[in-house]
Design a protein that fits this description.
Blueprint lengths: L3 H28 L2 H30 L2 H31 L1 E4 L11 E4 L2 E4 L2 E2 L13 H18 L7 E8 L2 H6 L1 H12 L6 E6 L10 E8 L1
Parallel strand pairs: 5-6
Antiparallel strand pairs: 1-2, 2-3, 3-7, 4-7, 5-7
């Protein structure tokens, strides 16, 4: 049978884990857009209350004698289990919270990105500025840079960066042109990521993109 000292050490370890999770969730709550912040802060407040209740019960156990521990063991175990389950459920609710970002010239037509749990899926980004004007017509290198600049802007709305990308797809109108310029093009990619990224990539040729001047569209998936 687990002794009081063993149980207390296990409880302390769990509290340390909860504190680390709370720190991470509070950072995400601060970074969230306004429409999600209230929900996130409510969940963090609930988690903090569970954490504080657990601390109080742990203190009671530490201050009580062995006899009191033996008498109260079953009730304390049930109480601690309830707290653990509540904390886990709140964490799952936080992680499952859906966040939608709409920015840029097409925000009234499509979502720029959607987060579900830790997965962030971005709509394909093309080489346009904030007003919807094409950047780098006829210049694949310039368009790649602008596509990635738009990717980075959407990611920032989720508190994420290029480091969080795990998969990308390039949709190009001329795959032969891309292959002929592969070295300088991938040099731009490494420059944008700040390294040779550990990111899966798919290259697909399409007959046309949304505007005739566009040569490439980049679609990314991130995990935060």
């Amino acid at each position: 049978m687990e002794s009081r000292e063993e149980w207390v050490e296990r409880a302390k370890t769990r509290l340390d884990e909860w504190n680390a999770q709370l720190d991470e969730l509070e950072a995400k709550a601060r970074a969230a857009r306004e429409e999600r912040r209230a929900q996130y802060e409510r969940l963090v407040s609930t988690l903090r209350r569970y954490r504080d209740d657990a601390r109080e019960k742990l203190s009671e156990i530490q201050q009580g004698g062995d006899t009191a521990w033996a008498e109260a063991r079953e009730g304390l175990q049930k109480s601690w289990t309830t707290l653990s389950d509540s904390f886990r459920d709140a964490i799952e609710e936080f992680s499952a919270a859906r966040q939608v970002v709409r920015i840029g010239p097409f925000k009234d037509l499509i979502a720029s990105g959607v987060r579900a749990g830790s997965l962030v899926t971005l709509s394909g980004q093309v080489s346009v500025d904030g007003e919807g004007n094409v950047v780098g017509a006829g210049d694949i290198a310039a368009q790649i840079r602008q596509c990635y600049a738009n990717v980075r802007e959407v990611l920032s709305e989720f508190g994420a960066s290029m480091d969080h990308i795990v998969d990308e797809m390039w949709l190009v109108t001329d795959v032969q042109d891309v292959m002929a310029k592969l070295d300088p093009i991938f040099a731009i990619r490494s420059e944008v990521y700040g390294k040779n990224p550990d990111v899966t990539q798919t290259l697909v040729e399409v007959s046309a993109l949304v505007m005739p001047e566009l040569l490439i569209e980049i679609k990314c998936v991130a995990r935060v």
